[in-house]
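WARN retry 2 of 3 for item q-0093 after timeout on previous attempt; input resubmitted unchanged.
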Amino acid sequence: MTNRSPRLASILAILASTNALGAGDHWIGTWSTAAQAALPASAENFERQTVRLIVHVSVGGKRFRVRVSNTFGEQPLVIGRSQVARRTIGADIDPASDRPLKFRGNVSVTIPARSEAVSDPVDLDVPPLSDLAISLYFPESAQATTSHVLALQTNYVSTGTGDSTAAVRFPVGKTISSWPFLTGVDVVAPGRGAAIVAFGSSLTDGDGSTEDANRRWPDVLAERLQKASGSAADLGVLNEGIIGNRLLHDSPPGAANPFGPILGESGLKRFQRDVLSQSGIKYLVLCLGVNDILFPAFPFTPPTEAVTANDIIAGYRQVITRAHANAIRILGTTIPPFEGAKFEAAGMNIDLYSPERDRTRMAVNDWIRHSGSFDGIVDFDQAVRDPDRPARLLPEFAAEDHLHVNDAGNVAQAGAIPLDLFQ
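OK item q-0093 returned
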């Protein structure tokens, strides 16, 4: 394979997995997270260590495969061994469920720079809404330049050195709150199965919700689907939210941005990787736009990146066109209010609200509700705003920063999604 491109190698691995399916079955995503580039100075480094990463699946099944990403790596990533099992508690696993992961028949894999690897299928009985533990052993130095920062999930790094992928009681050296390298889990589903991608910013990523509780609104939507009748239980929900992400612009450039690249590439740029490349996608819930409105408040944002409502609407039209070109049904979500919102971190204390920004938000929401451009509408704004003061979140739904919602707010947002939109 030395003469094949990294992208071609990834495609061949996916095709090999697909060819192993039975008639009528196909792969859909049951869990995912968006790859982010990390600042090298702050990226975790693993050497002759094992990480055990916990993920909460939406759809259950009996056959799975795992996606590992080196998307933002400049060097090959070497994984000496990897395992998948049902998580019991903490970092521990059910030994009867422990399975080795292989890549084209090999227990080890070297993932080229700027590429990803998809594991061979593994037979494992996993209930819906349950936790998997995916363990990766790095025999060489591995810097997590590709990761997901806001996991809101406790993950584990081994003590000492050596392969601990099969350890029932994992030797925890430290915990981390990110998902290094891991970006997806697929499951074999019947013909009616499909995936829903939640494509958004921190409001989708779960900022403001309780860690280790799976209270992001996509998690709550997955619970609703599992409780519904009919084919709804065969719909996977994939969270492709990134904190600070914008529809139209990448993470702001330059040394003045304390976050570096972690706020992600623009929604328009990452659409191919984070939406179209997901397995079995049939539905897209678009939740970007709020940061496009808010970011001019930050001193590290170039003035040229200020946007109007029409700019955001033009971006939405591009996403709608690309979704429809790929036979994806796209749902638009209104932008919740943010009066009183503050950003207090990285040495900054910034008021995010202004009447002008709120007028932009309302103009965008008016277009979402009335243009007829989306295949369906989810009114998050109406679900969580204060009816007596509609420019702000209802106090019982607001997180401390008054920009994000808490667990109750996420339940309200997920409850505002009509399930018949997924028929």
